[in-house]
Amino acid sequence: MLSMKRFVYFLLLLQQVLSRPSQNVLGKREELKLIDINRYIEIKDYDAVAKAYDGVLISIGDFSEPTKPSQYLVNHYNKFLGKTNIGYFFNVSNTTTVEQLENDIGNVHTIIKDNQNNFPLYMALRNGATGNWLAENKESNTKIALAGVKKMKELGYVPGLFTNDNPAKVAFNMKEIKNAGTSIWIARWGLDDGTLNEKYKPEGFADYDIWEYTSKGFDANISTNDVNEVPLNALVNKNIIIKSDKKQPMVENSTMKKEIEKDLNKTDAKKDNEDSNNWVYALIGVGVILLIGLGVGIMYTVKNKKKDEKNNNDDDEEPPSYEQVVQEQTLENTQLPETEQSNNNEAEENNNQLRTRSSIEKI
User: Fold this and answer.
1) Minimal CA–CA distance to 38: which of 54, 63, 57?
2) FRET pair for 144, CA 20 to 30 Å: which of 19, 154, 237, 293?
3) What is the rounded average pLDDT of the residues 234-259?
4) Rounded CA separation 76/131 (Å)
């Protein structure tokens, strides 16, 4: 029989299941991870990688054809499309000017404007403290970065800055850049042994949203120059993730586009089916628990009703009167067992004989 305590436990468990958010790319692990992908990275199993990480950040490329995506960008984007969070970063030369940076951002916009984008757009100013990125150029470097931030905002993006910890400490006014509404992505590898070590977390400048903690994370489904290594990032602030309903393939070939859209429709149908099944299972669970609860409630109601009836009957009975008690005792005495009555008669007869004999002897 199911106890009330267990019934309450089942209800609490059901509440936790129903209050859980619908499955998405967040929340799969306590430690949220991203990977950043460049031209040297090869993905062997895109589905497995999409499930293993909370998002991918893909390099735009070198702008050899300024307004056209590179082939590896097209390939990676289309294979991850609709399966995980996707974002972008683009490299900025350490000899750039404000005009060059604004032009590069315009080209990036042309490439990705119709495509899925779930992260701030990151400009990568991270080639060490060289060229412009020297301490003595801190004011001009900050000016260039802020110009890029402004341009990205004008085009509708959340601006981001990707840099190493060294330039962040000496070559930029990170507080000013952060206060301009910029998301900060810092690379600091520490021992660079593939593990996250809190000892080497970025310090000494504005708050950051992403920390690239190693360039040698191991993943059997990813290889860089034939080695199973990939840059790993801790997603420190999951609030930077942006919802995107865009599912436009990044292709120019119409045949390939139709194939990708067909795969996307299959993926969407599979997700819808999984969501429907989850709701069916949840409703079945609710029904079972409600039936159990109804049964338990009926059981307790019947049990308490019988108990109340018994108590009421006991309360309604009046105590016996004195005359009833005397009558019951007299009746008990008159209803002696046959053997006991016979013995009493025999004793009476002997007494009579003794009294007769005594009388004769006196005569």
Assistant:
1) 57
2) 237
3) 78
4) 31
